[in-house]
From TrEMBL:
GO terms for cellular component: plasma membrane. InterPro entries: TM_pro_TauE-like (IPR002781), TSUP/Inactive_protease-like (IPR051598). This is Probable membrane transporter protein. Belongs to the 4-toluene sulfonate uptake permease (TSUP) (TC 2.A.102) family. It comes from Eiseniibacteriota bacterium.
């Protein structure tokens, strides 16, 4: 049941902010479900396969807020990047993967905070 709640929270935040996998699901799986960082990453990617963003994207598209060409190009980059990122992540130890992810989240948070101040 905890996985359903993690998915529900990620879905709401994804629809609201366009986030989900890395920012919500992976930390939630580590903190609340007790998964290791590499298991959480793989599980998140498994959950995010094709249909997940469809309804959220459709809702935003109906109101004219989706740049379809940009979305398709980003999807292409995501597909290629996810493959190479997975290869890199699989070579890292669990502690290094988890710490690297934490540093990434802090760096993104600081950048967003600074940009919001202007």
């Amino acid at each position: 049941m905890q996985f359903v709640f993690i998915g529900l929270a990620a879905g709401v935040l994804s629809g609201l902010f366009g986030i989900g996998g890395g920012v919500v699901i992976v930390p939630a799986l580590i903190l609340f479900a007790g998964l290791k960082a590499n298991d959480a990453t793989g599980t998140s990617l498994g959950a995010l396969l094709l249909p997940v963003g469809l309804l959220g994207a459709w809702s935003w598209w109906q109101k004219g807020h989706v740049n379809v060409k940009a979305s398709m190009l980003i999807a292409l980059g995501l597909a290629i990047g996810a493959f190479f990122g997975a290869q890199l992540g699989l070579r890292m130890s669990v502690p290094v993967l988890q710490r690297s992810f934490a540093i990434f989240l802090v760096a993104v948070a600081v950048q967003l905070w600074m940009k919001a101040s202007h």
